[in-house]
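Researcher: Quick test of sequence recovery. Tokens follow.
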């Protein structure tokens, strides 16, 4: 089913309630992918990885940014949460999983501000060109 750390398990909860648990295996892979990429100013220690279950979404993974207003309110540095949907992500091959993780990392802007980069299809800021370049560098 899914890869969990020693002593970790999904806790059964009421139907339709999403479960999130830390995903240290995904965190290691994100760190490895970031090391392979050139010219990234991403702070891997501020990217938190989770595996979710019972999520009703078409997505395979999602990234959540900590917006500037919350950074100021909580007096914390920018951070991101990367969520993988266990029912879909865990069934994929390693290469496909890495491509999904790189796609989510491409949503992080170069200044690591807590904001998210949208799917822009045209011009110099073409999101998909960025993703393809990241995949080419890391795989």
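Model:
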């Amino acid at each position: 089913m899914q890869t969990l750390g020693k002593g970790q398990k999904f806790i059964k909860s009421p139907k339709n309630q999403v479960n999130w648990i830390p995903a240290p295996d995904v965190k290691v892979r994100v760190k490895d992918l970031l090391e392979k990429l050139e010219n990234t100013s991403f702070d891997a220690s501020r990217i938190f990885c989770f595996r979710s279950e019972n999520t009703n979404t078409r997505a395979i993974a999602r990234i959540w940014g900590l917006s500037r207003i919350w950074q100021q309110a909580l007096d914390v540095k920018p951070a991101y949460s990367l969520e993988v949907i266990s029912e879909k992500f865990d069934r994929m091959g390693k290469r496909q999983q890495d491509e999904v993780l790189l796609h989510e990392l491409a949503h992080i802007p170069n200044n690591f501000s807590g904001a998210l980069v949208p799917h822009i299809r045209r011009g110099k800021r073409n999101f998909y060109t960025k993703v393809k370049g990241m995949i080419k560098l890391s795989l």
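Strands lie at 19-22, 47-53, 61-65, 80-85.
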